[in-house]
Amino acid sequence: MTANARGPVPLSDHPDHPLGSIGHPRPPGLAAGAGPGRAMAAGLAAALAMGAYCLSMAVHGTYPFGSRSRAVNDLGNQFVPFHAHLWDLIHGNTTGDLTFNWGSGYGVPFLADFIAYLMNPFSWLVGLFPRDMVDFPVFLVTLLSIGLGTGLMTLLLLRIRTGSPWQAGLLAVGYGLSSWTVAAAAADPMWMWALVSLPLTGIAMDWCLRRRRWVPAVLLISLSWAGNFYTAAMVTLAMGLVLAVRLALDGRPAGERVRCAARALSATAVGVLLVAPVLTVPFLASRAAQPAPPATYMPPGLPTYLAHLLPAGYTGSAPFAAVGVLALPLALCFPFMGRAPRRERVVWSVLAVAVALSLVWEPTILLWHGFALPNGGPYRASIALTAILVIIAWLALARGPRPRELTAGAALTALLLVTAGTGTDISRGTWVLTLAGCGTALGLLWYSAHRGPRGRRTAAAALAITAALGAAGATLSLERIRDDSAWWQPKPTFGPHAAAAYAAVRAQTAWPLTRSDPGPHTFADNDPLLLGGQGGAYYSSFVPAKSARTLAALGAGWYIGGRHLLSFDADDPVGHALMGVAARLDPSDTEPPGFAQHLTPAPPLVTLRAAGTRLDGESPQDPSVFHLRNRLMGTPLYLVGDLDPARPPHPRPHTAAVLSGRCPAGSDAYFHAPWYSGTVRALGATTTLRGQEPMTRNSLVRLGRVTTADPFPVELRPTRTQPMPSPTLGCLDPARLERTVRELAADPPTVLDAAGHTIRASFAGPRRNIAVIAVPAVDGWQCAVDGGTPRSPSSLGGLIAVRMNGGQNLACTYRTAGVNSGLALSAAAALVLLAVCTAGAAEHVRKIA
């Protein structure tokens, strides 16, 4: 069949149509064999973006090009440790698995963490390097995501409209190194997958628009969501809006456009359901997690917002939307492009303004972020605006802007700079990069429009250098701005100190008989993941609320409203005995500084209590942490008292309130005031506490050894006006604690195994006692005695407790909520995909026949 036999070329196939040249002969510049290929341009764009990023890191002296650590904020506290744990999982260097993590929080579920933090495919590179080099593959996650995302954006731009692949690549560099990448995502390796998933989703939507390749579109969307579901929701919404604009500008009949939209919706639905466990598991885990601290939102002022559209604009709080020295002025040119239909200019401009406004209006912020106001920054969806600005810039550049149009873009850029400069949220780098970088880029475009082929090639090379140096300069400027923030000071991760700590922890490991706690949170908020061992520290959005409440009730502290758990303090032997901690890492006094494990007697991970022990829910709630510990240990270790009740109810800040306490001679006095902020002075020592409900919870505090039976003064000096704490004063009998630990350890399991997501214990004979496992009893545990029917266990002091009822063998298995339902949805989506593939194959055979 010839082209003429098919009838007139539809409007959507016209080269000036917003859909580009669908089925239309290529323009002369893109004729087959003439000019560089799209793949080569995408590769060059990726190389430019990665090179610019590396250049900025090298000038800044940042790892791996200098001594300054990259591990700022959550990169150091969460993601480097999580990647270290991924290394352990890959190499069989840990007893847990993808389902359960025995090392953190004294035992916590892990699959939601894995899905949320480690599903960027580049994260698996960690397995190719030594463990003490984990920082380097984490850097590669960022670098390679920038490169792949930039290359794919080049291809997406060329699908939206034909034009020079090299020019598309230069604009894609602005997308790959936008301020969203540097300011929001570089410290979160999993978010970096959004740079890849956005153009992947855009290409899938483009296939649906052209009514072809439905199955590959489904697979691209699945890949996008599998890599990181959180940002995938944002980029899917962004590319859905782009598709809506392209459909609105399409000249085909309404029925055809509806079918294209339905095709895109079905591809998205099936693609997401195909990887449904990445949604169901984190969703149910987040419902069971400790709630995020309450967040409030204050929109930025206009100068602040505009400053963040300019290169290196970062000093205030606003959406991260800077897209480089080339894309910004071109995007501002587009409304004046005479070669573009007026309707197209209006619709795209309205989309950009609407998305920009949606990023600073709380109801739409909630929509972008899954109906939850993000804790730590409300502008994570800014990548949508960066992509739309780059697309609009491409629609202008692909048509060859004339001098008048370039002048209009330059004027708007200058107006933007002047307006932003009226506020305080603009850096010196912004002035330099905007005036020099944007001015040079526009000048080269103007020069290119007036010169022959040789002049255009020279201008193209200079433009590439300008775009790359502008991206590098903006990245460097943003890094230097953050240097002045205490919030962004890098954390020490791997190095000689960490190696010494790691070796010390592993040297004393006796798991699963007892725990080796990596201790004082020296390196990161997730030291057990970084250093190995089995501690209480755990920082994640998926901290189970039951874990947080259990450990807090037992006297451990927390930060971030319970989303960062802490180990029991070094001077809390009962806390260590409760959790079977026999070794705890502490800094030593050696030269150079090293680490040593402080060893203490501890009962095993699984212990027995008397059959008549009151389980949780079988009696009124314990009135204090000391009563709870006494019940859990099965003996009155603490003599429970209180301080002088005649204390002032609301002392003024920095004034002393002297109270009176009394303990038996030879006992250790402990003080428990979870939300108290100020100093506590007693028994010759002063302790500073920084409690603040609900964010920061104090752990149990040891006041000191009591030498006489006489009352002793306790001086409280609060830092703010607050109700006086009503702590119970606990007097620990060290000798009784020592006897109790010996008694609990006297009848240990003959077999004890804790690996994967199962723990098994066997005793020498039948037992009618209560078996207590020193692990918080979070939802999902199922326990069976002597092979009986698995049931949800009871709890004692929040820890797993099972009545043996004459049994000898105990087995408990953790099952992750959401896995089965997610797999069922995935199976249904796979059947739909298979049916479509089968129908397509049958239709193809029928046509051949």
Please describe what this structure looks like.
This protein has 849 residues and is α+β, with helices and mostly antiparallel strands. The chain has 26 helices and 24 strands. The strands form 7 sheets. The chain has a 4-stranded antiparallel β-sheet with strand order 9-20-23-22. It is globular and about 95 Å long. It starts with 37 loop residues before the first helix and ends with a helix.
Mean pLDDT: 89
Alpha-carbon distance between the two ends: 17 Å
* Total DSSP E strands: 24
Helix/strand/pairing category: alpha+beta
Q: Biggest sheet: strands side by side, in what order?
A: 9-20-23-22
User: Low-confidence segments, ≥5 residues, pLDDT <50?
Assistant: 1-35
The biggest beta sheet reads: 4 strands, antiparallel
| Overall form | globular
Total of DSSP H or I helical runs spanning 4+ residues: 26
Proportion of residues in β-strands? 5-15%
**Rg of Cα set:** 31 Å
Assign a percent range to the helix content: 40-55%
